[in-house]
Structure formats: C-alpha cells, structure tokens
Amino acid sequence: MLSRLAALLILAAGAAAPAAAQDILGPDAAACRPGSGRDAVLLTVDGFKNRDGTLRVELWPGNDQDFLRNHHELVAEGKAYHRVTVPVPKSGAAHVCVPLPGPGVYAMGAFHSPAGVRKFNYKDDGATFTRNPRVGIFNTKPKASDVAMKFNTGLSEAQVTLNYLKGLGFRPIPKDELPSNGNR
Hints:
single chain; alpha+beta; four-stranded mixed beta sheet; 3 helices; 17% helix; globular
C-alpha cells in the first residue's frame, strides 16, 4: 500500500513538471528549464496591483557606475544588459527567464506598467529590484550594492515583490488590499 502511494506521488510530480515549465515567461524561457546548460535567472515577480499591461525585467552590471545606465551605452561598451518584456499573467506570480552572459554579480529590476507603456509613470506603475530594497519618492534610485546579487553557473532563482506609490514612498500592496484573483 505504501509503495503504491509513493508511486502515485512520483507520477503526480512528474506530470506536474511540464505544466510548471510552461509557466515560464519570456523569449528565453528554455534557458530556465532543467538541462538547458545555459546561465539564466528565473525571476519570480509577485504583488501585482492589477492584471493589465506589461511586465518589464531588466538586468544590469552589479556596480554603481553601470546600474540603471542607459542600455544603449552599456551594449555599445560590451557590458551586461538584457531586457525581457512580457504580458502580465492572468493570475499568480510571473516567472520570467532572463539569460545571463555568465556567472557574476548583477542587478535586476522589474517594472509593471498597467498602460503597457515603456516610460515609468510613478503614479500608476509598480517597480522593484532584486533584494527588495526600500524605494521612496526622494531616493528613487537604490544603490547597486543594495540590489546586486551573485549568480552562479546554470540556473539561479530570485524573488521580488512589486511596489506601488503609497503616500511618500513605494511599498508593496498589503495582501488584504490585492484583488482576489490570485495576484499574490
């Protein structure tokens, strides 16, 4: 009896794996699947205020000189930069695959634009960075040392929670204030 239960659990786990893999968003989703042999980050983003628009994830070098610099300059200088833009998922957290140029220290940001525009609108859009630093109106740009993380060879994972304008700062929306359609 116990061995049958163990066999059923193994089969159920195996059956669930492909569905979870399909939930990975982005044009490089295959880089975040087991056995890809590529360096990538699977960034889990939660705390969506609503399910409209797009989610943009960006990767920069993890130093103060290059963090949040213009992407055209970084690319022209051969420095690490990558952007992934995906539709906001209908429910749950977004799992976005971001390829890495190799193991190293990088900073990442995630930006939710309900209107689907690229320029950040602080009144409506959500934002966060790896390591979830506090962000306010007067200190909107965190330091690279507050957000940079070391990523190893192969698949790395990180999780962030979006912040939206509330008072004089950006904060996660309390769980009880999120719409009840699985935003968290």
